[in-house]
Structures are given as structure tokens and as C-alpha cells.
Write a structure and sequence with these properties.
Number of helices of chain B: 13
Strand content of chain B: 15-25%
Structural class of chain A: alpha+beta
Distance between the termini of chain B: 58 Å
CATH superfamily of the largest domain in chain B: Alanine racemase
Number of strands of chain B: 21
Largest sheet of chain B: 9 strands, mixed
Helix content of chain A: 40-55%
Oligomer: heterodimer
Shape of chain A: globular
CATH class of the largest domain in chain B: Alpha Beta
Number of domains of chain B: 2
Radius of gyration of chain B: 25 Å
Radius of gyration of chain A: 12 Å
CATH topology of the largest domain in chain B: TIM Barrel
Strand order of the largest sheet of chain A: 1-2-3
Number of strands of chain A: 3
Helix content of chain B: 25-40%
Largest interface: A-B, 30 and 20 residues
Largest sheet of chain A: 3 strands, antiparallel
Order of helices and strands of chain A: EEEHHH
Shape of chain B: globular
Number of domains of chain A: 1
Number of helices of chain A: 3
Chain lengths: 86, 452
């Protein structure tokens, strides 16, 4: 999964998609995920990174990331699937 | 390195629209304690979900209501409405505060007697009173509020057999400008039914007409309707005085005062809409004081308000079972309590708070109960922080009707705890078990065995 390269992010969690004109608000963990994806990291890399940083079980994180990724797709913030570099 | 606190990632589209001029605040200020007791600790000790009653809140609310009426009128008597919450500990807090009992069935009547209320301080309302129940109430010198003519004739028949003269009142229904009119209970004022019933009772001489009763509706938001009702009952009382030279001992205005819950579909929050006890008291007492009673013949004012006295004292604590995403993208959270024990979620958009700290981020969710039934919706739309499994929530103002109308449906009913004046919790109703339900079941012997 890759974040559309035009999507703009602010440090406060404000997300703007110039191609649709939509803006979004995300929490700090959401922002961290979007930033990593935008850098071209894979979802597996993102999950491993979050597991190292936060007190959370793998199963819960897996489910939350799956749901969050679906929301990013639903909001058209992602590009057509390409193989991401780790 | 110490790991950081985790919060579920969320993203929400920002919608541009007209701002809410009332600036309704979001509802997720955490409520970690109820009367000094940690939610986490209560749920660990008594299980989840759990009803919690604040004794301090009951007593404070009662004293507020009592003060509102007693500072305006010389003779005021509250009677605790058993159907609103008849857990014995709750009833006895009201009785300790001086409330009589107001019951609407033989079962509630027995409960009041068992709680130690003397028969002459029990008001027996409702359309369903059997011969046995009426006999018991007559022998105990209770106040019988007659609902229909059949009941009047039943009491008349019993009065001929009893040495005691039944003390009765009639329930009067009327047009107070609030619709639909509750005309299914009692006798109508406008069409003369009430006056006919009064004449039947007084001319019969086997019963003593001691009071007049009305109960004009429920969750009433217009205090002026009570003023009108008090005027009409006063008018009847003065007509009785004029025709029969008989003074009515009390006027019972029933209940129906709104609590601070938010009714479904209401634009404003309940706490902004619910009239104060003072506004109800002002309307009622002004109407009676101005009706024309002689100073020494002012009737006692009886009030049976239930909901407004107990709602705020009740909390329901529960836990998150799961989160899911609905097909239309909405977030859904499944809780371990539903409409089976939170019956009032059919009527109200209950205020629900998380019981732990969160960041300022929130998302719109639907809250479902645990029942395998589509109707089990606790809130259709609510803004809450990102809850995860085992997080805990607090539902506010659930003291009225839930602990009486709850259903033993699919799952067992939870425990109830009362937190006393010194913040000490007491178990006042145990969590149900399979045994407590099956005690009443009888399995015929021929159905005991089967092969699969």
C-alpha cells in the first residue's frame, strides 16, 4: 500500500488530499502510519515498528492496522497497489 | 526503553458545514470514579456490567425536591413510586427521607409492607387490583386510588363485609394542554365522569373519600400543565366542600416530572430542557393556594414523582467486547450491556463516558449491545474516543425504570451496588445465576432424557 504522493500531512495530524479537495484529521499513531507508508515502507514494516514502540498485542495491532488501511483506501488516500520497498 | 501508551489509529473526514450555535461539547471527558470508587475496581470486584446507585445523589435530589415544595406550601408528602425502582435498598433510602410508598400492583404492595411501610402510608394506584389485594389494603387502612367503576363496585362490595371503612381517592384524567391526553386511567374531568364517581362514593357512605389524584403524563417538560391540573383538582375539592360540606384531605399530583436525560430526537440536551423542581413546585402550589381553600382546610399535597428523583443517581458500568467497521464505513462498538438491561435506551440518547483517559481524538460510532438481536442498539450515533476491547464505559442517569423493566433475555441480569454516604460500596442485588432463573422452571419427567 502506498500513500498518494500529493497527499499533504501536517505534524498536528491534518491530512489534505489535493486531488479530491478532502481534508482529514488523524491521531498521532495514524499520522505515524501514514508517514511511514508515504516513505514507501510496507504495512508489515509499519506493524513491526509500532510493536516495538507501543504497549500493544500483535493481534489487536494487526486488526487495527487492517481497519485503518481500509479507511485510507475508502478515503482515496492510497495509490494503486505497488510493491513497497522495506 | 519504556514502551508508549497505545491508541487505536483513526482517521476522519473533516466536513465543512454550519457551526452548531449551541457549541454542544463532545461527550468523552473520562469518568474514572463514581462517588470515590474507581470504575475499574468496582467492575473487577462485582463483574461487568454493573449497576451502581449513588445514595448521596438520591438524598440530595430528594432534599432539593422537598425543599422546593415545602418552602412554598405548608403540607407536603412525597410517596416513593415503586415501579420506578423497587430495589429494597433504594426504596428504604426514600423511606428514611420520609417518603410514603406508592404502588401499582399487589407485588409492589407486598414489597412496601415488607420494607416496613405501615399500611396507612401506602398509596395503592393502578388499574389491576384483585379482590384479595383490595381486602388486604382495606384491612391495612391503605389509600385506595380508584381507577374505574368496576373497582369502585368491588370496594363497595368489600366495604359491606369489612369492619373498616375503606379510605379511597379517585384518579382524575383531564386536558392539561399536553397531548395525547392520558385518559385511559381514572375518570375524566371535562365530561363529568369524575364528578359522577365522587357523588357515587360520597352518597354511598360505605367508603370515605379522602383524596383526589391525577397523573397527567410522563417526562413532562411543561410545568404549566401541572398548574392547570392542580386548578382542576382544587375545583373538584371545592365543589365537594360546597355540595357535601366535606373537606378533601389531600390532593395527589402524581409524578411525571422529566429527568435530565435526552429524549431521542430532541435537538437540545435533556439537562438544558428539564424544568427544575422549583418550576413544578411554583405552578402546583400557586394553583392550590389561589384556588379558594380556607386557611385551615388546605389539602395535603402528595407527590409521587419517581424518575426525576432517581435517574441521576443510577450509573451503568460496562466493558467493550469488540470493535468493527460497518458496510457503510461507520465504526461500531459492541458493549457487554444492551437493551435487555438498559431498557431506557429505547427512549433516550444516554450520555456515555469512557472510564479511562484518552487523547483528544474521537470518532463517530454506533454502540451495540451483546444480544444476538438487531434491535440491540444502545446509541445510534455517538462521538467517543477510540475504544478497544476491555476498555470500560459509564452510562449516566439510568436510575429510573431500568432496574424494574430490565429483561432476563439471552443473558443474566447484573449485580447492583449502592455507594453509601461515606463512599463505601454495598452489594444490594446479586448477579443472577442459571440457578436463580431455573428455580421457577419445572421439567416434566418424560422430557428429561434424550438421545442425539
Amino acid at each position: 500500500m502506498k500513500i498518494n504522493k500529493n497527499v499533504a500531512l501536517s505534524d498536528s495530524g491534518f491530512v489534505f488530499n489535493p486531488s479530491t479537495g478532502d481534508s482529514f484529521s488523524t491521531n498521532p499513531i495514524g499520522l505515524e502510519i501514514i508517514k511511514l507508508l508515504k516513505e514507501g515502507k510496507s504495512m508489515d514494516y509499519v506493524k513491526a515498528s509500532l510493536l516495538k514502540t507501543y504497549t500493544i498485542e500483535e493481534a489487536t495491532l494487526e486488526r487495527d492496522c487492517y481497519d485503518f488501511a481500509n479507511m485510507l483506501m475508502k478515503f482515496k488516500l492510497t495509490e494503486a497497489d505497488e510493491k513497497a520497498e522495506n | 526503553m519504556k514502551k508508549l501508551h497505545y491508541e487505536r489509529p483513526i482517521i476522519q473526514r473533516l466536513n465543512v458545514g454550519v457551526m452548531n450555535k449551541f457549541g454542544t461539547k463532545t461527550e468523552y471527558a473520562p469518568v474514572t470514579h463514581v462517588d470515590g470508587n474507581a470504575v475499574k475496581g468496582l467492575l473487577a470486584k462485582y463483574g461487568s456490567p454493573l449497576f451502581v446507585i449513588s445514595e448521596k445523589t438520591i438524598r440530595k435530589t430528594f432534599r432539593d425536591a422537598n425543599r422546593a415544595f415545602k418552602t412554598r406550601y405548608p403540607k407536603v408528602q412525597f410517596a416513593w413510586s415503586y415501579k420506578t425502582n423497587y430495589v429494597n435498598a433504594v426504596c428504604n433510602v426514600f423511606h428514611q427521607e420520609g417518603s410514603w410508598a406508592e404502588v401499582v400492583s399487589g407485588f409492589e404492595y407486598q414489597k412496601a409492607l415488607q420494607n416496613g411501610v405501615s399500611g396507612n402510608k401506602i398509596i395503592f394506584n393502578g388499574p389491576d387490583k384483585s379482590m384479595e389485594e383490595l381486602t388486604m389494603a382495606i384491612e391495612n387502612n391503605s389509600l385506595l386510588h380508584i381507577d374505574h367503576l368496576d373497582e369502585l363496585y368491588m370496594i363497595k362490595e368489600l366495604a359491606t363485609k369489612s369492619k373498616k371503612k375503606p379510605r379511597v381517592a379517585i384518579r382524575v384524567n383531564m386536558d392539561t394542554g399536553v397531548y395525547p391526553i392520558w385518559d385511559r386511567f381514572g375518570f375524566n374531568y371535562e365530561n363529568g365522569q369524575a364528578w359522577d364517581a365522587i357523588n357515587k362514593i360520597i352518597l354511598n357512605d360505605q367508603m370515605e373519600l379522602v383524596g383526589l389524584h391525577c397523573h397527567i403524563g410522563t417526562f413532562m417538560l411543561a410545568p404549566s400543565a401541572y398548574g392547570l391540573a392542580a386548578s382542576k383538582l382544587s375545583d373538584l375539592a371545592l365543589s365537594i366542600k360546597k355540595k357535601f360540606k366535606k373537606s378533601i384531605q389531600y390532593i395527589d399530583m402524581g409524578g411525571g416530572f422529566a429527568s435530565r436525560n435526552t429524549l431521542k430526537g430532541s435537538y437540545l440536551q435533556g439537562m438544558d430542557l428539564a424544568p427544575s423542581f422549583d418550576s413544578f413546585a411554583e405552578e402546583i402550589t400557586t394553583a392550590i393556594l389561589n384556588a379558594g381553600f380556607a386557611k385551615d382546610e388546605l389539602p395535603m399535597l402528595v407527590l409521587e414523582t419517581g424518575r426525576a428523583l432517581i435517574d441521576d443517581a443510577g450509573f451503568l458500568l460496562g466493558s467493550v467486547i469488540s470493535n468493527k467497521r460497518l458496510s457503510d464505513g461507520r465504526r461500531a462498538t459492541i458493549l457487554d450491556f444492551g437493551v435487555n438491561i438498559l431498557f431506557t435506551s429505547f427512549w433516550y440518547d444516554h450520555k456515555i463516558s469512557p472510564a479511562q483517559e484518552f487523547s483528544q481524538y474521537s470518532e463517530d460510532s454506533v454502540l451495540y449491545g451483546p444480544l444476538c438481536m438487531n434491535i440491540d442498539v444502545v446509541r445510534e450515533n455517538i462521538t467517543l474516543p477510540p475504544l478497544k476491547r476491555d476498555d470500560q464505559v459509564v452510562v449516566h442517569s439510568v436510575g429510573a425504570y431500568n432496574m424494574t423493566q430490565w429483561m432476563q433475555f439471552i443473558s443474566l441480569r447484573p449485580a447492583i451496588v449502592m455507594i453509601d454516604k461515606n463512599d463505601k460500596p454495598h452489594l444490594i442485588r446479586k448477579r443472577e445465576t442459571l440457578k436463580s432463573i431455573e428455580t421457577e422452571e419445572v421439567l416434566p419427567a418424560y422430557l428429561k432424557d434424550f438421545k442425539l
